[in-house]
Amino acid sequence: MSVLSLQSVSLAFPVDRDISQTRLVLDGITLHLASDEFIAVIGRSGSGKTSLLNLAAGFLKPTSGRVSVDGVDIAGPGADRAVVFQDDALYPWLNARDNVAFPLKLRGIAKGERRLRADDLLAKVGLDNAGAKNIWELSGGMRQRVGIARALASDPRFLLLDEPLGALDALTRARLQQFLLKVWSDSKTGALLITHSIEEAMLLATRVVVLAPNPGRIVADIPASFGRQLLSGKSLQEIKDSPEYRRLHDGLTGLIHADAQEDAA
Ligand SMILES: Nc1ncnc2c1ncn2[C@@H]1O[C@H](COP(=O)(O)OP(=O)(O)OP(=O)(O)O)[C@@H](O)[C@H]1O
């Protein structure tokens, strides 16, 4: 079992490129993600969700505090932490299979083996016959699935997901939520998901973390079991109709709303 940890992490950005003046964006963040967990981070726009993910990915260095994997400070981005963005960021000059195989190429894996593994990963994300397709021939949902297959190709211990379903229509998004849940459960990687959707956070995560802004800080860290209920075959409607679902939904909405009112006061 691996653990990705942020320990008393703060992050300040310079104000208007003036490095003598800084603004605190995240303050005192402590968060541990184990490789069997799915943490969803919600919070208002500007509360620091993406900054938190960028710290975990190693794209940003904390101003103070530590970011580590299994107790070892990270030095920057690494293959142990794969990132999927809202904008799929695929290579348009490569077909779907070669996009997925790209991390394998970087690791020096031979061509035949790369092809087999890429096809296997494409099958895992339900794109068995799409390997030879050009990126521009794929729908938005298919492109996101290729992006997730590519992230899995590096055999990461953690998947860092920055609003990966945010640009999709409601129906495709609902389908891909179920798919993401299955991928997480099968691949046994820890997942950190940034989302604007309370419902998405509740349906996928084993823990929902709420950030409040100015400066970004954790105001709630709540366990959830709806994803596991979905995986064990309970229907979405039954889950959404349950009192525990409605209670948590109301609670999370209240937390985000309370924080907005505090800001306006
Ligand atoms: N590179 C940067 N330089 C200066 N300020 C930044 C930088 N990146 C983010 N910020 C500021 O940090 C704060 C948090 O931004 P961040 O993108 O992490 O929030 P967020 O919760 O992900 O927002 P959203 O939900 O709108 O994507 C914002 O006020 C933003 O303007």
Automatic annotation (TrEMBL):
What is an example of a GO molecular function annotated in this UniProt entry? Answer: ATP binding
Query: Keyword Transport, does the record have it?
Result: yes
Q: Which SUPFAM superfamilies match?
A: P-loop containing nucleoside triphosphate hydrolases (SSF52540)
Listed name of the protein:
Taurine transport system ATP-binding protein
Entry-linked Gene3D superfamilies = P-loop containing nucleotide triphosphate hydrolases (3.40.50.300)
Q: Which family does it belong to?
A: Belongs to the ABC transporter superfamily.
Q: Which InterPro entries match?
A: AAA+_ATPase (IPR003593), ABC_transporter-like_ATP-bd (IPR003439), ABC_transporter-like_CS (IPR017871), ABC_transporter_ATP-bind (IPR050166), P-loop_NTPase (IPR027417)
Q: What is the lineage of its organism?
A: Bacteria, Pseudomonadati, Pseudomonadota, Alphaproteobacteria, Hyphomicrobiales
Record flagged with keyword DNA damage: no
Any Pfam family matching the protein = ABC_tran
Q: Which residues form the ABC transporter domain?
A: 4-238
Q: Which UniProt keywords apply?
A: ATP-binding, Cell inner membrane, Cell membrane, Membrane, Nucleotide-binding, Translocase, Transport
**Highest taxon above the source species:** Bacteria
